[in-house]
Amino acid sequence: MAKSQLSGKVQTVLGTVDPSTLGMTSMHEHVFIDFVCMYAPPEEAHSRRLAESKVGLENLGWVRYDPFRNRDNLELLDEKTAIYEIGLFKAAGGTTIVDATTIGIGRNPQALVNVAKVTGVNIVMGAGYYVDMVHPGGMDDKLEKQLASQMIEEVTVGVDGTTIRAGIIGELGCSWPLTKNERKVLRAGAQAQRVTGAAILIHPGRSPRAPFEILDVLEEAGADISRVIMGHLDRTILDTKTLLEFADRGSMLEYDLFGWESSHYSLEAYDMIHDGQRLDYVQLLLEHGHQDRIVLAQDVFSKTRTFTYGGYGYGHLIENIVPRMRVRGIRENHIHQIFVENPARILTLE
């Protein structure tokens, strides 16, 4: 499709829709994902059986404590389960989901179409590449313009030889420090943004300076920073002074790990914050006038985050967090802005 045909619309896997129809939106989820690249089995022999077993009551608590130490937990591949889970999201009042799965972690456009058709939920699919460790072969030889052309094609023509089009660029995966190919992908994403008018969703590396560096690269490449969504802030910038410094850079600010209530975070030597603390950061940003740039999500990437396997499911934000926001005194217009207005604006192709 020509850019003129897309402008002013939100592109879902079933086609373009009017931004006013998006409703309650979760901005960073994985309806389908193969995340086995993050599997980190325990060294102790007595734990190997739990690590290699299917997720069930026998090992559920053990897996919840560290989701990366069980292989089966890192695969969301079953279409029937996805339909059930997204159906629960809709029943909770959810209308739109951004599926952030990109190249390297099991993006599945046809399965997303099937789920969207059955459930009636809008699903916006991502374009581009996840982190360097899962890049396909030949990335060293690919030119920036080739990567940009591919992302442009995924938004304007279709993904993986289909006519199912992406509606957002990303999540573009970044490590800390950035690798050469990740820099190339970021710069290509900036080019693709200029051509398609799509927003860019970022998975930053695990350092408080990573989001700053990423915006520097994107800005230098000509990206519109106001249409960049910096994800995973709830595991990346914990110092409030640094957070407010970053907020002044002008990107969208995404707290997307709601529902992760265990403090143990095996990927880094610091404690994961809980939902109450996430709301503290959201309130801080609201107090400093950033209400037009906050978006929220849960980043469901494992079985134990789903309702089927004892988790809160994709509707957790709507069922549990929104009521807590009201109890805290967060204004109704700000809640509407965070869940409806901000997503509709940033997902609209310009």
Comma- or semicolon-separated keywords:
350 residues; TIM Barrel; 8-stranded parallel sheet; alpha/beta; two-stranded antiparallel ribbon; 12 helices
List the helices and strands and how they pair.
Blueprint: H1 3-6, E1 10-12, E2 15-17, E3 25-29, E4 33-34, H2 48-52, H3 60-65, E5 75-76, H4 79-91, E6 96-99, H5 109-119, E7 122-127, H6 144-156, E8 168-173, H7 180-196, E9 200-203, H8 210-220, E10 228-230, H9 240-247, E11 252-255, H10 275-287, E12 294-296, H11 316-327, H12 332-347
Parallel strand pairs: 3-6, 6-7, 7-8, 8-9, 9-10, 10-11, 11-12
Antiparallel strand pairs: 1-2, 4-5
Textual characterization of the structure:
The protein is an alpha/beta fold and 350 residues long. It has one domain (9-347): Metal-dependent hydrolases (TIM Barrel, Alpha-Beta Barrel), CATH 3.20.20. The chain is 37% helix and 13% strand. It is built from 12 helices and 12 strands. The strands form 3 sheets. An 8-stranded parallel β-sheet has the order 3-6-7-8-9-10-11-12, sandwiched between helices. Strands 1-2 form a two-stranded antiparallel ribbon. Strands 4-5 form a two-stranded antiparallel sheet. The radius of gyration is 19 Å and the shape is globular. The model has no long low-confidence stretch (mean pLDDT 97).
Number of strands: 12
Strand order in space, largest sheet: 3-6-7-8-9-10-11-12
Radius of gyration, taken over Cα atoms and rounded to an integer in Å: 19 Å
H and E string: HEEEEHHEHEHEHEHEHEHEHEHH
Shape: globular
Distance between the first and last residues' Cα: 14 Å
The residue-averaged pLDDT reads: 97
Structural class, by secondary structure, is alpha/beta
CATH topology: TIM Barrel
> Low-confidence segments, ≥5 residues, pLDDT <50?
none
Any guess at the CATH architecture?
Alpha-Beta Barrel
Helical region count? 12
CATH class assignment: Alpha Beta
Question: How does the major sheet shape up?
Answer: 8 strands, parallel
Number of domains: 1
CATH homologous superfamily title: Metal-dependent hydrolases
- As a percent range, the share of strand residues is 5-15%
Helical content band: 25-40%
